Amino acid sequence: MVTDRIVMGDGLERRTVKIDVSGLVCPQPVLVVRRCLEELDSGDELVVVGDYPPAERSIRRTCYKHGYDVSDGPPPDAEDEFSLRIRVSESASLTGESAVSGIE
Fold it and tell me: 2-87 adopts what CATH topology?
């Protein structure tokens, strides 16, 4: 895990944490991502790189369900890898009810 710290114009510090879940199969990648997200604050982001397509879908689904903003990350090094950028928002939460109405 690699962490970069950036101080924004508003004086607040934002973190970008980078993790590689390559070589892991479900459910391990999602568990690793959840553990990392629990440690981040609103405004921080997590960049995830992996090589198992079902893990990408599971990570996206879990993050969407819990209110995290997910987008494609920086281009991966290899064709068979994926890269996701997950932003922590005020409404994001891994505990309790889903942040998206109607999803449990």
Answer: Translation Initiation Factor IF3 (3.30.110)
Q: What beta strand segments (E) does the chain contain?
A: 2-7, 13-20, 45-50, 69-72, 82-87
What is the separation of C-alpha 39 from the centre of its chain, rounded to a whole number of angstroms?
Answer: 11
Structure token pair of residue 24: 């892991």
Can you give the pTM of this predicted structure? 0.80
Paired with 71 in beta bridges are 85
- pLDDT per residue as tens digits for the range 54-77: 999 999 999 999 999 999 998 888
Residue 25: Cβ within 10 Å count = 12
Residues involved in catalysis: 26
**Contacts of the segment 73-77: beta carbons below 8 A, 24+ positions apart:** 73/47, 73/48, 73/49, 74/47, 76/49, 77/49
Sheet (strand 69-72) strand order: 2-7, 13-20, 45-50, 82-87, 69-72
